[in-house]
Amino acid sequence: MNVTPVSSSPSRMTWEMGAAPRYFGRSDAWTFRQPRRGKSRRAGFRICPTENVVQLEDRLGELAAGSIGDVIRKIADGSLNPRPQPAEGSTYAKKIKKTDGAADWNLPATVLARKVRAYYSWPSLFALLPIGGNYKRISIKEAAPIDLQHASKPGTILVATPKSLVIACGQGALNIIRLIPEGKKEMSASEFLRGTQVAEGDELPPSTGDFLTQ
Whole-prediction pTM value? Predict the structure, then answer.
């Protein structure tokens, strides 16, 4: 029997984080050439509610490293009990584009916070912030949703104090904790607000990927 090399992959990781999973797993997958059918052995863990895609990938790597040798040995001696990968329930993960990182403030704050975590490496969740009559691009690196009732238009700056930067969303509001201002290094929202004039009540422009990536 011929067996292809084992692969251990965080399948659909970024897309799944955007879809709000509570449990994530690693598949040790391989293909038997006769018959040509995929088999897998699974393991997993719960995702921390503040974990970003880089932190998740590191944990999956540790999970894989701890079991990959045992999986290879059991494949070789025939003692592994694999399961065919079910076709039912499978989900297609589309290719992520840079424009997917454009913040749509009409979305619920919980969804935007998940996108921050999912797109942490690339393309980041980004937006245009009104500063001194101009718009400056920011990449949001850490944020938390706030269960807040408001009547403001999505994209309105609700709070801009030396300690908080909060943006109205379609449902709730997004508290921006860490960001990368255009042309600068990553910093906390507090550091950013101490040196930048941001006015409460100002509105961020509608987020369209083409506009934000120019």
Answer: 0.76
Cβ neighbors of 171 (< 8 A, separation 6 or more) are 108, 109, 110
The values of phi and psi at residue 106, to 5°, are: -75, -15
Sign of CA pseudo-dihedral 41, 43, 49, 52: negative
For 29, other C-beta atoms within 10 Å of its C-beta total 18
Q: How far apart are CA 125 and CA 39, in angstroms?
A: 36
Q: Is the pLDDT of residue 72 over 80?
A: yes
Q: How far apart are the first and last CA of the chain?
A: 53
Burial of residue 5 (number of CB atoms within 10 Å: 0-12, 13-18, 19+): exposed
Residues 45/61, Cβ–Cβ less than 8 Å: no
Name the token pair of 52. 């970003």
Phi and psi based region of residue 12 (left: phi greater than 0; alpha: psi -120 to 50; beta: remaining): left
